[in-house]
Design a protein that fits this description.
Layout: H1 19-38, H2 45-70, H3 78-94, H4 100-119, H5 128-147, H6 149-152, E1 158-159, E2 165-166, E3 169-170, H7 174-196, H8 199-209, H9 211-216, H10 221-247, E4 249-250, H11 257-270, H12 277-291, H13 299-313, H14 317-330
Length: about 325
């Protein structure tokens, strides 16, 4: 599959930053990783776990952001792909003794392949019809995880999932494993940063903006639609491969349809089509509820109200709100993409 032409304005992302600002996004990722490397010191085990969970969910949201925010494909199966990655890693490491690194790669490869197969309906259906296809797939995967007890353990799940070693260093402690998650998240984030700014990434954006015109420019819309869906699915598989050793026990409940809706909410709240949007959205979805627990039983109502007001004030999400502020300050767009 050849790269599309890059000279036409349609193949460039909306609000693309100037070269210096593009580098600024990468610098932001590196600085954020450096801060998160030391942030859990003194926070305790649970606080470190919450930060690690935020990063794991950010990876899953990154994949959905690529599928929805850049390629414009509506998917309700992201949690199902995350479940496939988590169970693949858990089964390979606990039952077959495969190393976590091999299981991580195989989880991404499996979800990539399944994403291609499921992505074929995306070539025939659009808008909410594609959402129905992924909804059915999500329900199917959850039923398999729940009912096929001989393979998945059913409602009893899979326990005693070991954490990986890193060049002989044991990652059993919360802080050590958190730093490992930071490193993996940074690698995947930089990979997507490069992808979005490559000709392939601009082709994804062209599909979202105007697929008919994109086809007229020589972009293979069928191939790039499948590729966007498959890569987004693979990111969910990678997230699941990290989630399994993080919690050390998995059952079907975290991978239900409701979790797919919650991941979709993170994309929208963080800002669909923004590189840093997944981190903001996952921060709202994972960390904010923990901060609001001081309100007792009212914390979920407060959380829902905050998200609702945010989306009413800025439908483009937090990243869109930041871009609006950047535009007012500098008079040019593209400060946050």
């Amino acid at each position: 599959m050849s790269a599309p032409a890059t000279t036409n304005d349609l193949s460039r992302p909306r609000g693309r930053a100037l070269p210096g600002l593009i580098d600024g996004t990468l610098v932001t990722l590196l600085l954020g990783a450096a801060i998160l490397w030391f942030a859990p010191v003194g926070m305790g085990r649970y606080g470190t776990y919450v930060l690690s969970l935020w990063l794991v969910m950010s990876i899953a949201v990154m994949g959905l952001n690529l599928t929805l925010g850049y390629a414009g494909l509506k998917s309700l199966a992201q949690a199902a792909f995350m479940g496939l990655g988590a169970y693949t890693t858990a089964l390979l490491t606990t039952k077959l003794g495969v190393s976590w690194y091999a299981a991580f790669a195989l989880s991404g490869l499996l979800t990539f392949a399944v994403g291609i197969v499921l992505g074929f309906p995306a070539l025939r259906v659009k808008a909410h019809y594609l959402a129905f296809v992924t909804l059915a797939f999500s329900t199917l995967i959850w039923l398999i995880l729940r009912n096929e007890q001989w393979l998945t353990g059913g409602v009893f799940g899979i326990s005693n999932i070991n954490r990986p070693d890193f060049f002989g260093i044991k990652l059993f402690g919360a802080l050590e494993f958190h730093r490992f998650v930071v490193a993996v998240t940074l690698i995947l984030a930089v990979a997507q940063w490069w992808l979005i700014r490559s000709p392939w990434g601009r082709a994804f954006t062209a599909l979202r903006e105007n697929p008919i015109r994109a086809a007229s420019l020589g972009i293979d819309t069928r191939a790039y639609t499948l590729l966007a869906f498959a890569i987004g699915s693979a990111y969910a598989g990678f997230a699941g491969a990290l989630y399994a050793p993080l919690v050390e026990f998995i059952d079907p409940s975290p991978f239900s349809l409701s979790q797919s809706f919650f991941l979709l909410l993170m994309v929208v709240a963080g800002g669909a089509g923004y590189l840093l949007g997944p981190f903001v959205g996952a921060l709202l979805g994972v960390v904010l509820p923990e901060w609001l627990r001081f309100a007792g039983s009212l914390y979920l109502i407060i959380f829902a109200s905050i998200v609702l007001l945010l989306l009413i004030a800025c439908p483009q999400g937090v990243s869109g709100l930041l871009e609006r502020g950047w535009t007012k300050l500098t008079g040019r767009r593209g400060g946050t993409r």
